[in-house]
Specification:
Blueprint: H1 7-16, H2 20-31, H3 41-52, H4 62-72, H5 76-87, H6 96-121, H7 130-142, H8 150-160, H9 163-169, H10 177-187
Helix pairs in contact: 5-6, 9-10
Length: 189
């Protein structure tokens, strides 16, 4: 009678893969998981990975995990950008970890583009002080991936001021955005 198969070979394969029913349950849970609009991408990523933890080390599950992760994202623009990059095989290696790193990088780009658009269209309201307006601009500047050229920044800032404040500053040349902002705050506290 042949000896029974060694338990070491069967235990090594069971440690890397789950029973199909367990995998299916995790996939179902991930399929219903969504990023709420007010939850940052990094928080969503941690929560997703916590649920997916038993599947993360299995290379066979990577394509499915990547597809599900993209569907869970709140930003439609981010989903489309990631899907295009994945379809073009621009995410290497094709793993969930690489996809999530790409998602973070793309999210920063999208945030930067949105912040620049808002800077371009931002206007000082009639009841907003120059100091409060400057603080809002500083928040948007902090979201940019790259700092703006000082001349461009001065131009955007001048255009964003109320007409009466901009008129008072119109004839002056400033060495820096900081000097311009300081004068605007002094003129229109």
């Amino acid at each position: 009678m042949p000896p029974p198969p060694s338990s070491s070979s069967s235990s090594s394969s069971s440690s890397t893969s789950l029973p199909p029913s367990s995998s299916s349950q995790i996939f179902r849970k991930l399929e219903s998981f969504r990023q709420p609009p007010d939850v940052p991408l990094e928080t969503h990523e941690r929560r997703f990975n916590r649920i997916a933890a038993p599947l993360l080390q299995n290379p066979r599950h990577q394509p499915t995990l990547m597809a599900i992760y993209m569907r869970t994202l709140a930003s439609r623009d981010l989903r489309h950008s990631l899907a295009a990059r994945a379809a073009a095989c621009e995410i290497a290696p094709p793993t969930l970890t690489a996809l999530q790193a790409e998602a973070r990088a793309l999210a920063r780009k999208h945030t930067s583009i949105d912040a620049f658009s808002e800077l371009y269209t931002m206007r000082q309201g009639p009841t907003i002080s120059a100091a409060a307006h400057a603080a809002e601009i500083e928040k948007k500047l902090a979201l940019l991936e790259m700092p703006l050229d000082d001349d461009l920044l001065q131009d955007l800032y001048r255009r964003s001021l109320r007409p009466e404040v901009a008129a008072r500053l119109h004839s002056f040349q400033y060495r820096s955005y900081a000097d311009l902002k300081s004068d605007a705050v002094r003129i229109c506290p």
